[in-house]
Amino acid sequence: MYAGVMKDNVTTRLILENVSHDYGSLAVLRNLNLAVMHGEFLVLVGPSGCGKTTLLNILSGYIKPVSGNVQINGIIRTVYQQDGLFPWLTVAENISMSLRDVKDKSLREKEVKELIALIHLEGFENHYPHQLSGGMRQRVELARVLAGDSDILLMDEPFSALDYQTRLRMRYELVRLLSKRKRTVVFVTHDIEEAAQLADRVLVLADRPAHISKELKIEAARPRNPTDDAVIEATKTILGELGLHSSVIKEL
Amino acid sequence: MAGTMSSATLPKKTTVQSATAKKSNRALSYVLPVAVLLFFVLGWWLISHFNLFPAYALPTPADVVKSFGEEITSGRLYNDVIASLWRVAVGFILSAGLGIPLGLWLGQHLHARQAFLPMLNFFRFLSPLAWIPFAILWFHIGDKPAIFLIFMATFFPLVIATMSAVSTIPAIYFRVAHDYKYKGAELLTKVTFPAVLPQIITSLRVSYGISWVVIVAAEMVGCQDGLGYGIWEARNGLRLDSAVCYMVVIGVLGMLIDRLLIQFTKLPNVRWGYER
Ligand SMILES: Nc1ncnc2c1ncn2[C@@H]1O[C@H](COP(=O)(O)OP(=O)(O)O)[C@@H](O)[C@H]1O
Ligand SMILES: [Mg+2]
């Protein structure tokens, strides 16, 4: 079932060439050029309403940009900003959604079992989402997009609805899961610390119409603590770029 | 270990209460309504005992119990109950079987909704009793006019409830369904329908309540048997003891069937709709 070996020789997963997008008269994206490498963890940071969700929708092929080219190499799964689990399905049934084209039932069950063990939710297979805490629900969402043979994960502020401590825990959880199941990730957030902790590469988007105002590579190994030097350094750089560091804020 | 850790974070719905407090609470939930019932019957008995109303206008509890015995031994009450249940069941199944699919379809098509909503609302606000002349003209006497009236009383509210439930399904569910390739009939049965099922169950309970009210009126004019006809006949024979006995049966049966319908809300895959 995971016979996508040939595909995995691909070095570029997503390519945007000169992409622009408008909603009616509202210019949202302007001349974006972007290549997402295989296995890369790319984080997009930008203020609310600057067009991050729109950009993800273009990357997934859900909306066609007004102009420019989009190339997608691989199977995409998305974690949305809103709660995307089906409340009428159990944890196990929600995760199986990713395995709908796997015909062999025992194979499907084995994979679901493995994923539930991976997210440490053994014993909750038959619980429904409303019976879980926010962090547990988010782990199920992660298991669902990791199930089967997806290549690219798009994540739209997946942890923004969680409290700070749960959010921190989920970052480590995500890093751990990705070390078990390698994926290419495009992760959207407005949380700068989150970007600095997770990313191989951070793209800072400027306010509408969005364009890439800064690119930042972070080499440090994961998992990273919020207090690691590399994370603090990157946080400073991003804050500076967004004009939110005290050294650049002159007057309020 | 991970399991126990996670269960500690599981949100609890029930408030903390000692086991004994819970038990006495449950006992109270039976004792209180029975006490109210006993007071009600006692009041009734006092009023009739001291002849505050003339005897022909208010039967005594003892009269009603006696007439209960008569109706049961003659087998008439049993026949009437079966006749009414049958009409309600057929009318109700017909209107749910047609109304829910129509509601699902309308909910998904904005223009169809715009086109039909005023007409549906018009019929919804038309009392089903207004159809009585047509019911009798078209279907004469027997089960059919009663079934027709129940259909007219429940079909429109069911369509409208299902339709508005569908049109308010959060867009995120359809987005996820799109990602996981749910299409056509599968989208309808595995996404749209389960997403509105909690609301459909609620509206089924409401429209069952309507049909139980309507059946009594329908049987007073279009039938030769049934609970409504029983009351009508009791009135014609000035047997109010018998009328009260039928009223008790109608009320109690209505409550029992509603308890049955409530069971649907306990299905595990609809609980989410009632708990948040
Ligand atoms: N479907 C749409 N139609 C019209 N305007 C939209 C639509 N989706 C988003 N917008 C607008 O485009 C801008 C960018 O939205 P979005 O991509 O959701 O931003 P972000 O995810 O960064 O908060 C916002 O001003 C938003 O109001
Ligand atoms: Mg967004």
Q: What's this model, at a glance?
A:
The complex is a heterodimer of chains A (252) and B (276). Chain A is built from seven helices and nine strands, in the order βββαββαααβαβαββα.
What does this protein look like?
The complex is a heterodimer of chains A (252) and B (276). Chain A has 252 residues and is of the alpha/beta class. Chain A has seven helices and nine strands; from the N terminus they run E-E-E-H-E-E-H-H-H-E-H-E-H-E-E-H. In chain A, the strands form two sheets. A six-stranded mixed sheet of chain A has the order 5-6-7-3-8-9, with helices on both faces. In chain A, a hairpin with a 2-residue loop joins strand 1 (12-23) and strand 2 (26-37). The longest helix of chain A is centred in the last third of the chain and has 17 residues, at 164-180. With 276 residues, chain B is mainly alpha-helical. Chain B has helices at 2-9, 19-49, 61-74, 76-108, 110-125, 132-139, 143-167, 171-179, 184-222, 227-236, 240-262, 272-275. Chain B folds into two domains: 1-53; 61-275, MetI-like fold, CATH 1.10.3720. Chain B is built from twelve helices and no strands. Chain B starts with a helix and ends with a helix. The radius of gyration of chain B is 24 Å and the shape is flat. The interface between A and B is medium-sized, with 28 and 29 residues. Adenosine-5'-diphosphate (ADP) binds at residues 23, 26, 28, 46, 48-54 of chain A. Residues 23, 26, 28, 46, 48-54 of chain A line the site of adenosine-5'-diphosphate.
